[in-house]
Amino acid sequence: MKLSPSARKWVRGVVDYGGLVAFLIGFFLNRGGGMTSQEALVQATWWLVGGSLLGLVVGFVFEKRIAPFPLIAGGAALVFGGLTLFFHDVRFVKLKPTVMNTLFGVALLGGLVLRKNPLKLLLGDAVKMPDVGWRKLTLNYGLFFLALAALNEFVWRTQPDDVWVVFRFPGLLILTVLFGFAQVPLMMKYAKTDEPPPPHVE
């Protein structure tokens, strides 16, 4: 099915954020209905699982594929959400950002240790930079993901559930977008090195 550019953006939004939006709405609707924060979190996890599953289905139906990152994120939401519902323990859903960001950070930094550039493998066709630029960008993102994992641990262990839910979404998304913008100067700096040198005039 051929989609217009605007329709494609809506589909991508559902795939990427459908589960998290459903989780946010479900939590505050249940809180407004008089549930305790713990009860609201458990009930909102049903929304998270349902929204994540719907996002994966929508992506497959309209795009005929599921991109790696939405597949990983959606699969993790199903796993941690399922554990939360099975054990009736909200710690599982709270730990998901910690576990996933730690895995991403370790994968990126581990790739550097092995002299690989994981980000280049994922974005190499879209962004042109020499290896030194990719190494610095990979290091920055690896440390950033580990910082997000630590920040999530701090927030869910010290703040009320209402605060953590907003931190989870859209808080983490906002931090990620801002960090991405902060990397633009680095990417522009090293992207310029791929330009051919100006002709030499005697």
Automatic annotation (TrEMBL):
Transmembrane feature ranges: 12-29, 41-62, 69-87, 99-116, 137-157, 163-182
Function, as annotated: Plays a role in cell envelope biogenesis, maintenance of cell envelope integrity and membrane homeostasis.
Any one GO CC term of the record: plasma membrane
Keywords: Cell inner membrane, Cell membrane, Membrane, Transmembrane, Transmembrane helix
Full protein name: Inner membrane-spanning protein YciB
Subcellular location: Cell inner membrane
Main location (coarse class): membrane
